Amino acid sequence: MAFHAEGLVAIVVFYLAILAVGIWAAWKTKNTGSEGDRSEAIIVGGRDIGLLVGGFTMTATWVGGGYINGTAEAVYVPGYGLAWAQAPIGYSLSLVLGGLFFAKPMRSKGYVTMLDPFQQLYGKRMGGLLFIPALMGEMFWAAAIFSALGATISVIIDINVNISVIISALIATMYTLVGGLYSVAYTDVVQLFCIFLGLWISVPFAMSHPAVTDIGLTAVHQVHQAPWLGSINSLDIYTWLDNFLLLTLGGIPWQAYFQRVLSSSSATYAQVLSFLAAFGCLVMALPAVLIGAIGASTAWNETEYGIPDPMTKKEADMILPIVLQYLCPVYISFFGLGAVSAAVMSSADSSILSASSMFARNIYQLSFRQNASDREIVWVMRITVFLFGASATAMALLASSVYGLWYLSSDLVYIIIFPQLLCVLFIKGTNTYGAIAGYLFGLVLRITGGEPYLYLQPLIYYPGCYPDENNIYIQRFPFKTLAMLTSFFTNIIVSYLAKYLFESGTLPPKLDFLDAVVARYSREHMDKATLVKSDNIVLNELAPVNPRHSLTLSSTFTNKEAFNYVDSSPELSNTEDN
């Protein structure tokens, strides 16, 4: 493959434009707000992100390289097709559910990160435990999309994959480093516009290529391969449901989502942003679906790609850049490539910022340095943005199974963090003992279910499992959802059991080593003077006391029983006489 100078120029132009917008947004951040809340401005943008920018940045959080490339791949792969392209519907429903049930309680309580309510209710230890799957999800996701970017660029222009990954990661890390959420949000607007324009410009050219059959015909009839609408085998229904619930419910407890929710100017705005982003995810998936359908409708032996087809060459995951390269004019393909590159960075920068935000606030500040200055927190965030960006880049270059690690970590977000989030927001009475038990049960059930991408054999063989070509057993049973439900109910049962055992006296208070029941009960029953002085109590929220006007002042403050006791006491009577 020859080196294409035009393609390199197109990518450089896209990257410079995005970098310029990111630096401008960083300058804007520096000149707004006070120095005292600089760290909060970096994490949640000063809580003044508007509807337009907020809608774009929340949409771009999900509409990244993995979303675009993955949707096109699912539609293209024979035997799967559109029926298995679950990401557009799954993530859109995730945003709708997040807006309906989670955005308002999180934003109205003024949290700064997703982990704040966990540390508030369960303590800093539990917050640290929940940080692990949250960090893994963000880091492996960033690494996976950096890896996809290198492969995408190498399809169209013959430059070193490692160089393209490193340069892309440096640019994304640079503007995130200096501008925080403002830079991420404003570059998301540019990136989303690039994706929309670049892919929609490419679709008509690809569809009109002589080697492409009418996609309406290939949707239901087998021409070059199985119909791209796809179907769901009766044996795979439970697997389909398991994956769909993972996308829909597991797409909620991500810091990248809640960072946008918490940056909204009000709880109502946070809900509206979620609904706008849900619509945006559906709209942005349309060109990817069409490109996947075009790939399934193409006689590849009539193109410069030749034979065998991408599926046979095991390049199905690169069907989108392949369609851009071989079915579109050269300048259109380069423009589309720039759009895909922009899509990758729009997700990578969000993940890097999310990971550094949680570490700086929930681990460094709340767990170790409660009295840290705002300037210190800002520098911790900058250092961790660089470190996490470098780590994601290294994993993208060195790890051979980044996608497998990301699948596993995203499962842990669904199985561990989602049920904990339900409990902390909606189930009254849960405590740290239940949270730890639910965490461990969910983790054990997920690991023992195996992971084909990591060649991890299951220890528990659920009904319907079968070996693949590598003799790794595949689970048909929805064991991920089972693990999530087990984690949820374990949290509730163990929490109430621990509360009963301590409050009934069955267990002595000294055994409450996590201070989750006895100490918490004591805090809730402090005297009124202490409660009023607490920062957690707002005086204007206390119930007003209305006087009883039917009673006289003297009768209101007269204890008749006390006077009767005084009259009947000879000692007190003599005292009064004296």
From TrEMBL:
User: Per UniProt, what is the membrane topology?
Assistant: Multi-pass membrane protein
Q: Which reaction does it catalyse?
A: choline(out) + n Na(+)(out) = choline(in) + n Na(+)(in)
Q: What residues form the membrane-spanning segments?
A: 6-27, 48-68, 80-103, 129-157, 163-182, 189-207, 237-257, 269-298, 318-344, 377-399, 405-427, 439-462, 482-502
Question: Which terms under GO biological process does the entry name?
Answer: acetylcholine biosynthetic process; neuromuscular synaptic transmission; synaptic transmission, cholinergic
For this UniProt record, the keywords arranged alphabetically read as follows: Glycoprotein, Ion transport, Membrane, Neurotransmitter biosynthesis, Sodium, Sodium transport, Symport, Transmembrane, Transmembrane helix, Transport
Q: Where in the cell is it found?
A: Presynaptic cell membrane
Q: Name one GO cellular component term.
A: axon
In terms of PROSITE patterns, this protein maps to: NA_SOLUT_SYMP_3 (PS50283)
> Which purpose does this protein serve, as stated in its record?
High-affinity Na(+)-coupled choline transmembrane symporter. Functions as an electrogenic, voltage-dependent transporter with variable charge/choline stoichiometry. Choline uptake and choline-induced current is also Cl(-)-dependent where Cl(-) is likely a regulatory ion rather than cotransported ion. Plays a critical role in acetylcholine (ACh) synthesis by taking up the substrate choline from the synaptic cleft into the presynaptic nerve terminals after neurotransmitter release.
Subunit annotation: Homooligomerizes at cell surface. Interacts with SEC14L1; may regulate SLC5A7.
Q: What organism does the record attribute this protein to?
A: Pygoscelis adeliae (Adelie penguin)
The entry assigns this protein to a family as follows: Belongs to the sodium:solute symporter (SSF) (TC 2.A.21) family.
What protein am I looking at?
High affinity choline transporter 1
What InterPro entries does this protein map onto?
Choline_transporter, Na/Glc_symporter_sf, Na/solute_symporter
Q: Tell me if Transmembrane is a UniProt keyword of this record.
A: yes
Major localization listed first in the record, in broad terms = membrane
GO MF terms, alphabetically ordered: choline:sodium symporter activity
